[in-house]
Amino acid sequence: MVKDPRIEKLLNGFSKFVKEREIPLTQKEKRIKNRYTITGDIISYSICPRQYGFYKFLGYAPSNPTQEWYGSIIHRFLKRAHMSFLRTGRVVNDEEIERIFYLIEKSMEAEGIRATNERVKRSALEVLKKFCLIEGESFFRSVIEAELRLIKELDNFILYGIIDVLRTEGEKVEIWDYKGMERPDETTFYGREKLNRYKKQMYVYGFLFKERTGTFPDKAVLYFMNELLKGNLEKTRFIIDFRKEEIQNEVENFIEEFKRIVEEIEESQKTNNWRLPENIDKNTCKQCDFKWDCPHYWTS
What are phi and psi of 156, to 5 degrees? Predict the structure, then answer.
């Protein structure tokens, strides 16, 4: 029987491939690990698995992404303001703030990300002016790095996060996350739940920082930008002290919880069964694109 040289070449190629990898072709390949973030995945899933599944895996896009616009323009502006400070040695003035703001706004429009109305734009611009005035030079001078990307490969997935700011306060190292909102009301159940989710976000960042550097940061700061509009400066910062042993233990416990939530997400994806949450904030339901056929919305 005459052998086809093309087939022979192909088989030889397979043979060489297998020999180099030292595994049989029939052996099942290790699956590609998915990447998960605390904000885009774990927090979103914890708020409402059904909504998360529709957006993340079923291809739907938010019809009114106001929060996305507001948070994005704040983050982009503060990064640009820091770069300007490094270049000039001074904080941007009101005229420069407006110029940078509108340049970023135009670039976001080109990406299809728009504010819903002028009131939202004015609010964001006013917040940024107040931040530069109040935090000013002492803040920008202390920044070590903005948008610090951290990643850690775990057993079944890859954990990924972006710290808004790494900075120093005296000899202490701090990680910051900007929140384009008022501080959650801790006197209410949903306010405490929301704040607890943000604390866990910083736990993940603290864990990733420790994995990269060998030690936890001294502190994490959640900075609630919209408290500046109300003049509540004492409420702008929520501080987590990583030097406390009980906080470090909470971090380790939450990483295990994170792993369990990832397992739930992947099981939901496999079965295409995105359950409703047991409890959910009514405001979340009101803003949801999928509320009209959701049993939770009509019974809450």
Answer: -120, 0
Structure token pair of residue 151: 């990643």
CATH 3.30.2020.30 correct for 144-262? no
**How far apart are alpha carbons 120 and 36 in whole angstroms?**
30
pLDDT tens, residue by residue, 212-239: 999 999 999 999 999 999 999 999 999 9
- Do the beta carbons of residue 237 and residue 223 sit within 8 Å? yes
- Provide the residue type at 115 as one letter: A
Give me 58's structure tokens: 């079923």
Provide the Cα torsion 228, 233, 238, 243; round to 10°: 140
Residue spans per domain, the chain:
144-262
Parallel, antiparallel or unpaired: strands 172-179 and 219-224: parallel
Structure-block tokens of residue 93: 């003035």
What tens digit of pLDDT does each residue of 65-111 get? 666 789 899 999 999 999 999 999 999 999 999 999 999 999 998 98
- Strand 237-241 and strand 219-224: the pairing is antiparallel
Whether the full predicted model's pTM is greater than 0.70, yes or no, is: yes
